[in-house]
Amino acid sequence: MKKDLEYTKMACFYDELYKNKNYKREVCFIEKFLNSKEDKILDAGCGTGNHAKILQDKGYNIYGFDLSPQMVEIANKKVNNNFEVGNLLSYSTDKSYDVIVSFYAVFNHLKSYQEFSFALQNLLKALNNKGTLIIDLHNPQKNGVKVDKFDSVKRIMQWKINKLLKKETSKITYFVGNNKYVTKHKFKIFEIEKIKMICDNLNLSCEFYENYEINSVATQSSKNIQVVIKKSL
User: How crowded is residue 20: how many other Cβ atoms within 10 Å of its Cβ?
Assistant: First the structure.
């Protein structure tokens, strides 16, 4: 996994770009799998720490990591310096956690099912025996273009889906004052049935939700998918 260099330059604008994102709703979904305020939570791919800040304000013990040093620096200002630079595929810790979350399509940056399985096993090393791992997956359905304007930023997003290769390629252009930034991303689109196979092979139980609704059941046509994984007893 590599962080787009242009993307790191946008870290200071990240919260402005996503200020309308419903972080509270996503945190409410996470809370459905927490047992008490004593639970320790790891945010794998914490970004600027917006989920973590809400969880901390609710009284939870929250830690995390992200590929981007710039994002980690911002997160640490919000949440007690509990964040570090790290990678899904190589992250290591001597701590153990009751819940691990990896939201905002972090796993979609992985290139293959082999990497998915490896990253999954790597995070499980830090998960308590009765713990829960929650993965949020981007699951696009069609090509598109979207233009957003914020206080000081204009953003043009363009994305195309290769249905044969199960990949999405996106180009995002940001205009900030007189400056222009262009980021490009390649997302792997992971299929529910293949994720189930990985979990079965690792003796893990898994459930699939959509749109952060606890009473929902995700399908391959869901726009976003939450995978809830537990170690089988």
Answer: 7
Please tell me which residue, 56 or 3, carries the higher pLDDT value.
56
User: Is the distance from CB of 147 to CB of 154 less than 8 angstroms?
Assistant: yes
Half-sphere exposure of 155 (CA within 13 A, CB side): 19
Give the number of other CB atoms < 10 A from CB of residue 127.
19
pTM: 0.93
Average pLDDT, the chain: 92
Which residues in 128-153 are b (16+ Cβ under 10 Å) and which e?
Answer: eeebbbbbbbbbbeeeeeeeeeeeeb
- Token pair 């007893």 in the structure block, residue: 233
Q: Rounded to the nearest 5°, which phi and psi values hold at 74?
A: -70, -45
Q: Please give the structure tokens belonging to residue 35.
A: 């047992």
- 179's CB contacts (< 8 A; 6+ apart) are none
Q: Which two tokens stand for residue 172?
A: 């995002």
